[in-house]
Write a structure and sequence with these properties.
heterodimer; A: 340 residues; mainly alpha; MetI-like fold; two-stranded antiparallel ribbon; flat; disordered C terminus; B: 363 residues; alpha/beta; 3-stranded mixed β-sheet; 19% strand; globular
Chain lengths: 340, 363
Amino acid sequence: MESNLAGAAVESPGPVNPNQPSPSAARVLRKRSARPRLGDPLFKGATGLFAVMIAGLAAFIMVSMAIGSRLAFEKFGLSFLLKSIWDPVKGEFGALPFIYGTVASSLLALLIAVPLSLGVAIFLVEKAPRKLSEPILFVVQLLAAIPSVVYGLWGVFVLAPLLRESVYPKLQAILGFTPLFSGHQNGLGLLSAGLILSIMVLPIITAVTTDVLRAVPNTQREASLALGATKWEATVIVLQNAKSGISGAIILGLGRAIGETMAVTMIIGNRPQISASLFDPSYTIASSIANEFTEATSEIHLQSLVALGLILFIVTFIINMLARLLVWGVTRGEGRGAHV
Amino acid sequence: MVKNAKGVSRIIAQLLIPALMLVPLAGCGGGSGTDANAEVKLQGAGATFPNPLYQKWFSEYNKITPNAKFDYQSIGSGGGIKQITAKTVDFGGSDAPLKDEELKAAPAELLHIPTVLGAVVVTYNLPSVSAELKFTPEAIAGIYLGKITKWNDPAISGANPGVSLPDGQITVVHRSDGSGTSYVWTDFLSKVSPEWKDKVGTGVSLNWPVGVGAKGNEGVTGQVKQTPNSIGYVELIYADQNKLPYATVKNSAGEFVKPSLDSVTAAAAGAANNMPDDLRVSITNAPGKDAYPISSFTYFLVYKEQQDQAKGKALVNFLWWSIHSGEQMAKGLLYAPLPPEVVTKAEQKIKSITYQGKPLYTS
């Protein structure tokens, strides 16, 4: 026993062993273990159940769609993916024009949106002062929140007439000799759909790219500047660092563009055809399902639509999986080594 | 003491929160029981065109028969046929009468009860033209087949002497969704154009040779309104309420007739005397000099043999009311009422609806 300054006897604490709880801590832990611990396993069980249910749901959707489209694949075989006809009266169906329309409109959207998004993201992260970048980012994210139907309405009533009266005639005057810009234009069609989609994917690509660029550690920027790079070269180095994350962002945007329904169906013209001119109407998988599903009475028509849905589901699934892997790889933890 | 209370509430919280998370799962299986003895609920689905009138009918009928509740989902004629065949609804609505294969595919005998009449009109957007245009059936077929591409084509200008038509390309608008309106339209075209009948045919969803597709009557209207030099087809009510110009069409007697309630009724009267027993009739291109050639009945689809006595009785009473008192509300909403001959035939059909072999309707 030792005595403190006042002279009273106090227990010596003794050498501190970090691997053993102190006496007072041990008292608390003993008390806690005496109480029943039903909550923990129940909590774990419930949340585990939900996680399994969601994964099961995705599998269930895929399997039931595969079953629901059996007839179409049996009747048409793999030529379903290659035929270019959609005739409900005669019972002939082929998915090619829809696949083309979906892919072409999405690629057009990316072609327009990616340079813009990258530009905005680079500006927001590298160049703009905080006071400017926060409001701009907020507005960009607001664009992402606007419902698809509203874009569709805006597209039909504002964008299409604008394109028809002002933009397309000029395009046709300059580039009309190429097959891409030939033919009759009326404001609807593949190019218009691509434009609307580009407005819709721009916020997503910008937001993710901004996050990805911010995740590149400042040491990279500082090191490149210290080694004598110009500001632009330093930016390029940062971009190279974030390469896979940016690809992930682009793929996320592609995923949204591919599945977009209402905005596209109001402006694309809804005509299943593959034609050279970007002014011609086209058709996407999502639009055709939305348009025809409730009224498809013949079994083969219905199952062909489900088959289209299955194709879209698989494509979207793969795209999103790829995007997650790429983005996750970059933004978790500190950044990777520099590619100088 | 405080420590104990804290401990107890902690236990309760630890147990309660996970349990509460599982509660929503338990609620999933709840069904809708019919507990009210006198109240009968009937579910219907189908054609969008007569929906405004049907909704008015249900609300008016509910005022005089409060224990009968009707619910109608306007999902389109094709949807109506699908649902009644699958017996997920008590009655269906369709502009298009069922084909023979569709009747055979139904699990029991289905009856067609005509309710009202409608017209499909040719609407267009020509800013430079203020006169009302006239169209021959051949011109319409040619436009929709893609063979007539310019407004000043002789096929169109020939029927409109004195009207200066622009030298512009025609933007053809049709329906992208499956629709009873499309059925009536293509039924007419198949009758007047052998090439159309062969190449495209009649149906709610089709392989259109040319044109852009718009969703719903609203979509076609919007498209035509926005696009100069465009042409489309919509239900009469729609064109009228949106102040769209619509054309007169030449009928089978050679007269150019403007679509109106009277010309539609005239089309029905001509066909009423030759109606087949099952009341499935197409009145497009009907005989009669006042008849508008692109007219159609719209039907309720009900099973001849009802499965539930209370529901069946409520249904036949409502059907009887609709073809008598209900018809008086039609004109106010711009629908054409059934001609008297058709009402008589519909009465016979309603009287033939049975439950366990015995007729349900007792006057």
